[in-house]
UniProtKB/TrEMBL annotation:
EC code(s) of this entry: 1.8.7.1
Class of the enzyme per the UniProt entry, highest EC level: oxidoreductase
Pfam families the record matches: Fer2_BFD, NIR_SIR, NIR_SIR_ferr, Pyr_redox_2, Rubredoxin_C
Pathway: Nitrogen metabolism; nitrate reduction (assimilation)
Protein name as annotated: assimilatory sulfite reductase (ferredoxin)
Entry keywords, A to Z: 2Fe-2S, 4Fe-4S, FAD, Flavoprotein, Heme, Iron, Iron-sulfur, Metal-binding, Nitrate assimilation, Oxidoreductase, Thioether bond
Family label: Belongs to the nitrite and sulfite reductase 4Fe-4S domain family.
The protein's role, per its UniProt record: Catalyzes the reduction of sulfite to sulfide, a step in the biosynthesis of sulfur-containing amino acids and cofactors.
Amino acid sequence: MRRLVVIGNGMAGARTVEEILARGGRDQFDITMIGDEPYGNYNRIMLSHVLAGESSTDDEDLILNPMSWYRENGVTLYAGDRAIRLDRFAKTVTCESDREVAYDVLIVATGSNTFFPNMDGLREADGRLARGVFGFRTIADTNGMLQMAQAEDDVSAVVIGGGLLGLEAAYGLRTQGLTVNVVHSPGHLMNQQLDERGGSVLRAKIEALGVGVHTSVRTDAVLHDEQGRVTGVAFTDGSSLAADMVVVTAGIRPNTELARAGGLVIERGIVVDDQMRCEDEGSVYAVGECAQHRGELYGLVAPVWEQAVVLAEHLTGSNPEAAYEGSRSTTKLKVAGVDVAAMGVKGPELDGDEFLQFYDSRNGTYKNVVVRDGKLIGATLMGEVGKAGMLTQAFDGKIELPEDRLSLLFDLADGGAATSAADLPDDTQVCNCNGVSKGDIVSCVHAGASSLGEVIAKTRAGKGCGSCKGLVADIVACAAGGALVPDPSADWYVPCIPMTKAELISAIREQDLRAVSQVFTALATDGTEDAGSKMPLASLLRTIWGPDWVDERGALFINDRVHANIQRDGTFSVVPQMKGGVTTPDQLRRIADVADKYQVPLVKVTGGQRIDLLGIRKEDLPKVWGDLDMPSGYAYGKSMRTVKTCVGSDFCRYGLGDSTALGIALEERFQGLETPAKLKLAVAGCPRNCSEALCKDFGVVSVGEDRWEIYVGGAAGAHIRKGDLLATVESSDAVLDVAGRFIQYYREDAKWLERTYAWVPRVGLEHLQAILIRDEEGAVAGLDERMAIAVAGYRDPWQERTEPKSPAQFVPSLPLLPLPQVPVR
């Protein structure tokens, strides 16, 4: 077996290995991959969703190949170890760890790096990016921005670069609640894809999101205060813009340093031939954004997928004639929530070019097509991209243009070019993000997949920006011979057990299953365990059995095992309980003493009126809790977390009700309660809403004379939603009763990780009022009883410090990522 080494575990390198394995490469090669990030392969396109709070860093849509994939496919992965030296004559690659890896065939897939313009204040003296300055390329970049955005109030950001990536960064940060400005040196946004008119329409859409846009200005320097914190950016015209954070998205550059030092031929990128072989080399290849083919560099994923297929066919011998001849420039994506499709030229270039243009700035719609000698040579769609599939076919020369050119932009009553899914050729690229064609989707359906969920899971179509999901559904329906077959697994509580949550609860009770392993054995398909199902099943068992469930530590997430919130550097944060946000001098002294004793890097007041101690080592957690001698604040769990309160009638001259007392009563009753997702409550002493009760999972507002309005399903994070008015009750005791029924019904009915702001609209406010307030189905007594049992079973988990659940529970663990010390502020 030949030794195949791939430098780079990004989208290009991993996709190439997938294509090699699909063609029998496991029997031909001993495959080793070297990646400088400490993860499996992930979808960089999804980072914008993570930044916007629409996804997380452990979301299956982000992680394309988890660590288990490498083991299952016989691939050796050296993660978190950068390749630093290539010896083409000895055929070895040396890593930062001093590991030396020998090869017979080498693939260089080092991708691109963020381009950082040469400007003052961008970097520290040692060359590192200055504190508060970020790129937007990796999980670490994204986590860094999120951490800063969530650590402080009223953070403002400047994004340098108004291309695709810059607008995605601006959209994500704005969604996180930051004040955001985009600075772009050309005259209009996304100038690589859009003409001036299209850029103007896009600008109006971006500004409508609350993002400031500054074009035709060039950034000259990043400004700092005496402590080294970012204070803004300065422009070449002498003006400036205030900011706490600077995100640089001014383009990318191929990562060719390793290849250049190793003696490969470099121009703008690593020069390759039609088989992706490096120039003058017999056993070294390059693929992806680092490769230069026929003078062209490609920064989009669709060409990279084409390169991966050609290289895999060449190396495995499955197609000796395989050759990459270049890719045509076509893009279909979603930018800051706006659909955009672009191909070819942006506007007419010769006197004889036909040019059709339509724009509607009020609705954010822009369209144009450019035709030369009867052939489509360019098209741009924004806001309404239904014609993108047909235009792509016309651009590739696969269909004739209609005589009425207007039908290229609109569906006309008298016909025109066909645009239905059935009329698209099989080689139509449907999902650019993951390189999935119509033929791939049709083949998947013909192979037995009959639902949209199955097709998406098997082909990854629609798992990138999401703009193609509608077309994917149409193709699946067409291939299946009619309407989509309902996906039964969509209602399963966990993927490996074919039951709804209600059916699963019933089966668990009937069979007296009290451990996650028992549930897998009795109910999972073929009795097979599924790692991703352990956490939701553990949560469900605790909901059903309370303290009488069987605690198997391997079924819990690290946060639940050690009762603290893991941070990105491997340390933990501890948040002691402060009921209703009320504390005492004694508690404050204990917190200060603990912070001093354990050298806590950061002490912070949270948005939920608690004090957070961040940067605590795992092995110190039991001692920290012992010294604090305060109950857990549950800031780490999928549970009832906090009840935020205002001053209320005790001190406030506007107070109508004792919000502090009611908030404390709610927290005492429901503390630590296991829920499908985190649950946040608030009580406001008057309609001025200082405690933000209107946008909490369960919010209570005093309207005077011991009358309280109860709002449910509110949100104020990545999703903004005012809670629905569930009921108005006549006493504080009634609030506690309704809260118990609402929380218990949510515990029993909601899907795993389904926040109330999604659950309440799904089940419907009228239904909740019928069940919980009017008791039309006689469910209230049962809900009250089950809630009382759960409340009675409460145990402070921090008491485990005296009796660890396992020998390894508080054993020191290595940091996940090396991080600089948190500065003293």
